[in-house]
Each structure stands twice: as structure tokens, then as C-alpha cells.
């Protein structure tokens, strides 16, 4: 049998069709980890953290240092892509009650879940935005744009080899997990995305904004190893790429991971700083354009792009990844959210993945935080409204991890 390069091997996920236009018309206490549980869970590019960044995890329905209910266990999760990258399985909190009760187990809580999320996020959100504001005021060679993002998926814990899994299950508490390294898995079932666009969208007061079909070329800079350039491209009539924006990998200022054991989906809130490159030398600009112009769109390869031999580097830049992203974008006055299919390929590891993802940008809340004098009560109320909107509409899903 002839050898098939890794990025040309078939992927069932990649074959999933994007929905057609007619289809698309309990208490918790904070478990605090400041700059400790950070994980490089993005593709082909290092995660950049601000100097005073905050990273936390909490579990809905539990007090700090409280044992989980007997129905909630820490289970090994089999994910082919992750196992190829790191050689081991991840762990996730799973609720056996969801097998019989569907996409949500009803818990009797003294406060609504979104109220507790808002109460526990508020202080760190305002502090992180204040730190971000100082970063934005310092002289930079790029345009800085703050983004407050909510993502749905599953919190995954990185297994501690020194901990016996069976003994952990017998006495599973939040205290045991709060210092474990973690990542956030955003690949959701296609049936969930179809439910969102066909059943949720018509009932939540959002309008269709646009449909996007773009490619991302990721470049490493040999002079700044911690940075990755993201070259956003559209496709011209002749099939060649048209470069329209160059960004640095985003800087994270705050990450709050929230495990929600009474549902099949968890929540991640992120405050990021988008860094749009505005100043480049002529040589840098030409090198980037040379690499973009050399790319060949090919639906049969993972990431959707390939390059001729010896055309993956130019000047100080080297191609390290490719994405093909198709998305439907919806919006209302408070937020903007995407339902997207992302086909990725990492040139360093020769690993590709196609995934369905949903993310929400809380634009009105972000604008409120940018005001010179922040009205804390107003921010709290708006944050609570956003969390209720997400909890009610975006966290119910059939079981999809095993």
C-alpha cells in the first residue's frame, strides 16, 4: 500500500457537512490558581499570558473543598487527537445521572447558577480588565483590542501519575482538582450545532450577520520564538489566497473554567487581548506575502492548504500551521456568536483535527468594561444576564465523550 502523508489521511470529522443555509436560517466557591493551571491547548502557536493573568477553575453545585455527589466521577476520556499529541488520556467530570435524565440533571440550589457565576467572576474580571487597560496604554507596534469570550465544551484534567484513580474516585473533592493542570476541549457534536441553529437561534432574538469562509496561515518568527503570526486570508476567484489581516497570537488576561456536572457541557470565560500587526518592514511584508501566495487550497489535505517543496519558509518566517474555517455568525445588541467548522493542521506534529465549535463574544459587556469609570453594579447585572442567556440556551447537549 502506498504511503499516505499524515495530513492527507481521512478524518470522519472532516467529512461532516456544514449545515446548509436553510438549516442555519448548585453553589460553587472559587478554586483559585493564579498563573498555575495554564495549558497550551491551542493549535500551532504558544499561548501568551499577560504578566498578571488569572487562571481559575470551579465546579458548579459545590462549596470549596466539598466532595462531589456519588453520581459525579472523574473518568478517563479517549480522544484520538490528544492521545497522539501527548501520549496519554485526559480526565473529565462525568455525571451518571445524565444517562437517564438526558441533557440536564435538575439540582435544587439556593441561588440560580448564573448568579453564582457572575458573583464569582466579577471581581477578577474587573481587575483583569484594569490590568489590560494598562497594557493597552503602553507603546506598542500593534493595534490592541480586548475580547471577552465565552466558549462551550468540556474541562479536561491532566492526569497526575502519582494519584491512584480508583482511590480518587472514592473521595473526589474540589480541593484535589483545583491545582491540576487542565485544558478545555471545544469540539462539540454536529447534532448540537444543528440544534443551536435550527431550534435555539429562532427563539433567542438574534439576527444572522454573515457567513465566513476563511483560511488562517500560521507563521513562526525565528527572531521571536514566543510569537506566532496569524495571517487571515479570503479566497480569490482564481483560487489563490488574499491576505487581509495579520495578527499576533492573542494574549490571555483571564481564564475561568467552570465545570457544570449537571449538564454535558462546561463553560470557559476568557478575557483576551487581540493584537493586530500594524507596523512591518518591507522585507517582513514581502516574506509574509510570498508564503501566502505559495499556498495551494486543497480540500483533500487537513487544514485545507498545502505548499510546494521548499516554499514553506521565507526570510525569518516559517509555516507552522494551517486552518480552514467556515462559520455562521449571529448577533444581537449584547453579543455576537459563531457556529463554526475548523479544519486544522499542525506542521510541527503532523497532526490534524476537524472540529465543530461555538463561541460567544460578549461585546456589550466588553464595551461597558472599557468605560473610564466602570459602574460595577451595571457590569454585574449585565454579566448575570449574559450567563443566564448562555446557561439556558447553550449548555444542553447529548453525551459525547467516552
Please explain how this structure is put together.
With 402 residues, the chain is of the alpha+beta class. Helices cover 25% and strands 36% of the residues. An 8-stranded antiparallel beta barrel has the order 5-10-9-8-7-14-15-16, surrounded by 5 helices. The longest helix is centred in the N-terminal third of the chain and has 25 residues, at 113-137. The model is unreliable at 1-44 (pLDDT under 50).
Number of strands: 16
What CATH calls the topology is mRNA Triphosphatase Cet1, Chain A
CATH architecture: Alpha-Beta Barrel
How many separate structural domains? 1
Task: Give the overall shape.
Answer: globular
Secondary-structure element pattern, one letter each: HEEEHEHHEHHEHEEEEHEEEEEEHH
Q: What top-tier CATH class fits best? A: Alpha Beta
**What is the count of helical runs?**
10
What strand order characterises the main sheet? 5-10-9-8-7-14-15-16
Evaluate the radius of gyration.
21 Å
**So, the CATH homologous superfamily?**
mRNA triphosphatase Cet1-like
Helix content: 10-25%
List keywords for this structure.
mRNA Triphosphatase Cet1, Chain A; 402 residues; disordered N terminus; alpha+beta; eight-stranded antiparallel β-barrel
Amino acid at each position: 500500500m502506498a504511503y499516505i502523508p499524515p495530513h492527507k489521511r481521512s478524518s470522519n470529522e472532516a467529512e461532516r457537512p456544514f449545515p446548509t443555509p436553510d438549516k442555519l436560517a448548585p453553589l460553587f466557591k472559587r478554586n483559585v490558581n493564579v498563573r498555575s493551571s495554564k495549558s497550551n491547548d491551542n493549535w500551532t502557536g504558544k499561548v501568551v499570558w499577560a504578566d498578571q493573568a488569572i487562571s481559575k477553575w470551579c465546579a458548579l453545585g459545590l462549596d470549596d473543598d466539598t466532595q462531589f455527589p456519588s453520581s459525579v466521577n472523574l473518568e478517563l476520556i479517549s480522544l484520538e487527537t490528544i492521545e497522539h499529541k501527548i501520549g496519554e488520556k485526559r480526565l473529565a467530570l462525568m455525571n451518571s445521572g445524565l444517562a437517564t435524565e438526558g441533557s440536564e440533571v435538575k439540582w435544587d440550589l439556593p441561588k440560580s447558577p448564573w448568579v453564582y457565576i457572575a458573583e464569582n467572576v466579577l471581581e477578577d474580571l474587573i481587575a483583569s480588565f484594569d490590568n489590560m487597560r494598562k497594557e493597552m496604554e503602553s507603546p506598542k507596534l500593534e493595534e490592541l483590542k480586548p475580547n471577552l469570550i465565552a466558549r462551550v465544551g468540556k474541562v479536561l484534567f491532566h492526569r497526575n501519575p502519582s494519584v491512584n484513580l480508583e482511590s480518587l474516585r472514592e473521595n473526589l473533592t474540589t480541593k484535589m482538582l483545583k491545582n491540576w493542570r487542565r485544558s478545555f476541549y471545544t469540539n462539540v457534536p454536529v447534532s448540537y450545532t444543528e440544534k443551536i441553529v435550527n431550534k435555539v437561534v429562532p427563539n433567542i432574538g438574534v439576527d444572522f450577520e454573515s457567513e465566513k469562509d476563511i483560511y488562517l496561515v500560521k507563521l513562526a518568527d525565528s527572531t521571536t520564538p514566543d510569537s506566532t503570526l496569524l495571517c487571515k486570508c479570503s479566497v480569490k476567484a482564481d483560487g489563490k489566497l488574499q491576505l487581509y489581516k495579520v495578527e499576533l497570537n492573542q494574549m490571555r488576561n483571564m481564564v475561568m473554567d467552570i465545570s457544570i456536572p449537571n449538564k454535558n457541557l462546561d463553560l470557559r470565560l476568557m478575557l483576551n487581548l487581540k493584537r493586530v500587526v500594524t507596523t512591518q518592514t518591507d522585507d517582513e511584508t514581502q516574506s509574509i506575502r510570498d508564503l501566502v501566495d505559495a499556498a495551494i487550497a486543497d480540500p483533500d489535505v487537513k487544514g485545507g492548504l498545502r505548499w510546494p517543496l521548499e516554499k514553506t519558509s521565507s526570510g525569518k518566517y516559517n509555516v507552522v500551521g494551517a486552518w480552514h474555517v467556515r462559520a455562521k455568525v449571529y448577533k444581537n445588541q449584547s453579543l455576537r456568536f459563531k457556529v463554526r467548522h475548523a479544519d486544522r493542521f499542525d506542521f510541527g506534529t503532523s497532526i490534524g483535527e476537524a472540529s465543530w465549535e461555538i463561541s460567544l463574544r460578549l461585546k456589550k459587556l466588553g464595551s461597558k468594561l472599557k468605560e473610564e469609570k466602570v459602574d460595577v453594579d451595571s457590569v454585574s447585572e449585565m454579566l448575570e444576564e449574559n450567563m443566564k442567556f448562555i446557561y439556558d440556551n447553550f449548555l444542553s447537549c447529548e453525551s459525547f465523550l467516552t
